């Protein structure tokens, strides 16, 4: 079973809580890296911690949520080995796993309805990397 690292700033706090309930109910192991109450927070702090835990091998996949999903992705992608994608649709979520082996999904609470966000999370967690020619391209990125 995959281990998930999840975190948000204040802009993504409510969606994070909603997604955690889904992750928990689905039986995943996870760790919530905060924030733990809704207060203004600098998203790079949370993004860095989650991203570092993934490259260190403590977790398989990460989910980061802010208002737009963008600042979390920009920050996480600064860390070597991280392939963070912001997804607002099912197709991108699926392809980001199949072809890009994305290891962090970022979401925008101010962009997505809760149910769509859950569908995106569900498909992203349940789609595997295809490898093959796509692996060569991932290696080229690295
Ligand atoms: C916070 O207002 C907002 O800037 C943040 O949550 C995020 O959307 C940044 O990319």
In the CATH hierarchy, the third-tier topology is known as Ribose 5-phosphate Isomerase B, Chain: A
Rounded mean pLDDT is: 98
**What is the helix tally?**
6
Please give the largest β-sheet: 5 strands, parallel
CATH class category name: Alpha Beta
Strand content: 15-25%
Tags for this model:
alpha/beta; single chain; globular; binds D-ribose; Ribose 5-phosphate Isomerase B, Chain: A; 142 residues; 17% strand; 6 helices; five-stranded parallel β-sheet
Which secondary structure elements does this structure contain, and how are they paired or packed?
Elements: E1 3-8, H1 13-25, E2 29-32, H2 43-55, E3 61-66, H3 70-76, E4 84-86, H4 90-98, E5 104-108, H5 114-125, H6 133-141
Parallel strand pairs: 1-2, 1-3, 3-5, 4-5
Helix pairs in contact: 1-5, 2-3, 4-5
Bound molecules: D-ribose (RB5).
D-ribose is lined by residues 9, 11, 43, 66-68, 70-71.
